[in-house]
Design brief:
OB fold (Dihydrolipoamide Acetyltransferase, E2P); single chain; about 25% strand; 4-stranded antiparallel beta sheet; 4 domains; about 550 residues; Dihydrolipoamide Transferase; 28 strands; alpha+beta
């Protein structure tokens, strides 16, 4: 059955969205996780991914058009499926999704336009100056409540616009939720592991030291978070119940250890010996926080018994080593960026038939040319900038490498947009230098520096990471001599750049000291034949070994 996709509310104050770009068209096959469109909210432009698979049957909001939250955005279903009934009722998309939402009857009680949380809740008449109430966002079209998986900020922390506040589990995925405001995190309304309805008070941000007690209490008494509060009064969570109970565990000496069931469970999962954990509860009882904050000690203090064993061991023959340590592992929740990177690289590796070509380049003249260029005032060019410039010029001579594979056609790009792989905390992003072949070395250097800096601070816009026709990945600065990369689709090739190495080389029949660099080109065999890739590398080598030709 076809699924109706509505305009999501991607920020806590969003009432309508504008479709900046459709990345899919009617008739395209859609897989779960594909990016459908880029949507402009009241605060940022964000990618909106599909949580459904099928064929895109209908687009309800065209590029450049704006529509309120919950408006019909698209319909996904089986190819050729009749969606006339859904289109006739597109003014009330919530009804079309009644089979998906368990709380559909409540949709009739909503007004035709959702207002920001600060307008709909029974908030104080006036908020303290600079104070912002952040509510649980609706991060998917069918989301009715969310669970805070992880808080990345704690009360008292400074928050900048664009900082990730928390990871929130929706009904379909775990997504990062960023702050659209700056200030100090004054209050957290939904703790880790807790679930609350959309529009519940999630956090309060404002000037440091501001008293928001009245604000928080008022929001708890009224508005969407009231249902969550009433649930807390009526029932206890499983964790609270397990913390109140106490189980007895015997240690190796037969002594009893008192711990909550939850603490015992977490200790088992983490491989922690409860006899080494100091309890902070009543009568030394071990609770959840004791286990979570436990740090293994290097070694236990010697006792009379261990001393006696040591003396015996000295007199006895040496025995084989028997491991006595405790296994310790750490789970780190995968960010949305890490999940996306994993999915896209897996798709590339298993759909594009990769092969690799490696060539060694003499870099002596390039090093001399770089020194001359950098001796000029206000000029700074890196070896990576030289490689990017040489790649752009080589691509103009070998456009088949600058191509994209489609099922029915191969697209040969005659414009050159080079993506530059940049390592960030959560993985890898690829900002794009548009029309790289038309840029000078100094322009390339300045652009790469700017894009890389904003990539690491998560300030890049989606448009700045879109449209690459070729990619360069450089690990030479880390001392890596040679490596291979996975193609950044829809590109047909990616260049892996190693470190410049000083070593003996043969010149004019004589062994001399030279500087060489290894380049490896990963190619998609569907579009780039071996001879084509080899010819591209030969041209690239000529440019780098004779850098004056790049300046002509």
């Amino acid at each position: 059955m076809a699924t109706v996709i509505t305009m999501p509310r991607l920020s806590d104050t969003m009432t309508e969205g504008t479709v900046a770009t459709w990345l899919k068209k009617v008739g395209d096959k859609i897989s779960e996780g594909d990016i459908l469109a880029e949507i402009e909210t009241d605060k940022a432009t964000m990618e909106f991914e599909s949580f459904n698979s099928g064929t895109l049957l209908h687009i309800g909001i065209q590029e450049g058009d704006s529509a309120p939250v919950d408006s019909l955005l698209a319909i996904i279903g089986k190819e050729g499926e009749d969606i006339s009934d859904l289109l006739n009722g597109k003014s009330a998309p919530a009804e079309a999704k009644s089979e998906e939402k368990t709380e559909a009857p409540k949709a009739e009680e909503k007004t035709t336009e959702e207002k920001p949380a600060t307008e709909t809740k029974e908030a104080p008449a006036t908020l303290p100056k600079g104070v912002i109430v952040v509510t649980m966002p609706r991060l998917s079209d069918t989301m009715t409540d969310g669970t805070v998986a992880t808080w990345l900020k704690k009360v008292g922390d400074k928050v900048s616009e664009g900082d990730i506040l928390a990871e929130i589990e929706t009904d379909k995925a775990t997504m990062e939720f960023e702050s659209f405001n700056a200030g100090t995190l004054l209050f957290i309304g939904v703790e880790e592991g807790q679930t609350a309805p959309v529009d519940s008070v999630l956090a309060i941000i404002g000037p440091e030291g501001t008293d928001v007690t009245g604000v928080a209490e008022n929001y708890k008494k009224g508005g969407a978070s009231a249902s969550a509060a009433s649930k807390e009064e009526k029932t206890e969570t499983a964790e609270e119940k397990s913390e109140e109970k106490t189980v007895e565990v015997a240690n190796n000496d037969g002594k009893r250890i008192f711990a909550s069931p939850l603490a015992k469970k977490i200790a088992e999962e983490k491989g922690i010996n409860l006899s080494q954990v100091k309890g902070s509860g009543e009568n030394g009882r071990i609770v959840k926080s004791d286990v979570e904050n436990f740090k293994p000690q290097a070694a236990a203090p010697a006792t009379a018994e261990t001393s006696a064993k040591a003396e015996t061991a000295q007199a006895a023959p040496v025995k084989p080593f028997v491991p006595a340590g405790e296994a310790f592992a750490e789970e780190i929740k995968n960010s949305q960026m890490r999940k996306t990177i994993a999915r896209r690289l897996s798709e590339s590796k298993f759909t594009a038939p990769h092969y690799y070509l490696t060539i060694e380049v003499t870099m002596d003249d390039a090093m001399q040319s770089r020194n001359v260029i950098n001796s000029l005032p206000d000029t700074k060019v890196s070896f990576n900038d030289l490689v990017i410039k040489a790649s752009a010029m080589a691509l103009k001579k070998h456009p088949k490498v600058n191509s994209q594979w489609k099922e029915d056609v191969t697209i040969i790009n005659h414009h050159v947009n080079i993506g530059v792989a940049v390592a960030v905390e959560d993985g890898l992003v690829v900002p794009v230098l548009k029309f790289t072949d038309q840029m000078s070395l100094t322009q390339i250097g300045a652009s790469v520096k700017d894009l890389a800096g904003r990539a690491k601070s998560k300030k890049l816009q989606p448009a700045e990471m879109d449209g690459s026709t070729f990619t360069v990945s450089n690990l030479g600065m880390f001392g890596i001599v040679e490596f291979t990369s996975i193609i950044n689709q829809p590109n047909s090739a990616i260049l892996s750049v190693g470190a410049i190495v000083e070593k003996p080389v043969v010149k004019n029949g004589q062994i001399v000291v030279g500087n060489t660099m290894t380049l490896t080109l990963a190619c998609d065999h569907r579009t780039v034949d071996g001879a084509t890739g080899a010819q591209f590398l030969q041209t690239l080598k000529q440019y780098l070994e004779n850098p004056v030709t790049m300046l002509a």
